[in-house]
Amino acid sequence: MKRNVEKKELELFTHLTVNELTNQLLEIGVTKRHINDHLVKYFYLIDKMYTFQVFNKNREYCRLSSILLGSLLGKDYYKPIINNLINAGIIQLIKNHRNFGDIKESKAYRLVNENVDFFVLAFSATDFKFVDKIINERVKRIEKDTQTLSRLFRTLSNIETSHIDQTCLSANELMFLHQLETYKFQTVGAKGKRVYNNFCNLPKSLRGCLRINNENLAFVDVVCSQMIFLASLVKSQLETQSITLENTTNHFIQLVTDGKLYEHLATEFDLNRDEAKDGIFQMVFSSNKFQSKIKKSFKAQFPQVLTVMAQIKEKDHKVLSHLMQQKEAEVIFRALDSIEYSKEVLSVHDSLYAGKSDLKTISDALIKSFQVEGINATININDQSKVKVFDSVANEIKDLHVDDDFGVFDIQEVKPEVEMFQLPLNPNDSAGKIFINLLKNNGIHFSMKSDSVSFPLKDKGFVIATASECYRNLRAT
Q1: Whole-model pTM?
Q2: Longest Cα pair distance anywhere in the chain, in angstroms?
């Protein structure tokens, strides 16, 4: 499928040959001169009907902005070209959209015949000036001006596909693979700060076929990730306002941390997990006016959580999703940036991917990033095991044995109204003494029992991350 990019060719998906499209346009009265002048623009729009999910896999239809079309196809030409495709029975208008993201006006289209076989046509820049324009526009869709983005795009460019038996792929998978090989893109969401590229939107079945450095890919991701970041935002908002978390809010956080929120609501409404998840997402990402049975039940079970969500969405319901995505991006890219730059790593919103030999590397990095943030979560490690972020540190402490005598230390007083985090730990063995000294050296107040150490919850992220680094350094020496 690959072609020489130096030839400045534009490859477009279509189900029509040049002669077939020309004849269909002539039949509805389009002049031969117009067709010759704008032929590639027609095929460009047909290609959009096939490839729009490469850029946004959640869209059901191809959305086209009048502003973008005007700049690419020409203000005087884009409407007649679209109308001609509609009148020729090639595409159809589905609906109008207002204020879609940063685009003030867009319309949704789809192919009239969606189930026909398609193929690739190549158009040369020497024959069509429009080809040069589109190639230059595509170059602008590659953002790699930071070390994080540079590494991601480098890894994207180094993905290996030659070993894949393409006869086993569906037509849709072949289309995604072709775009990955010939038209790489990478952009950053203006408000949510997520990175979008070819790899993010690949079908999961195809993603599992790819290789890096001749290795199959392995991944780590966050269980119930959207709700994890929602819980983090809610908790942060309440703490900022010095409002005590209600028991129902703590219950919500615990369900989310355990990855059990969707199952909890699914049982109540006799739904499957995906149906419950869809209902929660609709409630979270809709305006405050939205009503549903799930929202009514959610309000009864987690009233404080819903109140905070409503406050955040009061002026613009999109603010909540943007804040959640920003927190997600912060955690994921902190993890990514902590990994040696020479290693090939990819991200998919709440996930990190690397060659199988680097599975532990990306797992440790993601866990540590959550620890620094002070967010507990359940991490799925390549569908082989799951671990809670802070449980991993407790286990690390319990497994450590040091022979040195770390002496006796004083119990420091903590104000009773301060919210505490309790870590299972024997403060009298060598590993416990290391941990206590770490707290003392950083000026953090604590209290002890025979089987645990407690310290202020607000210090949890710093303490756990510092402890992890401390124990790793001791093992190394």
Answers
A1: 0.78
A2: 94
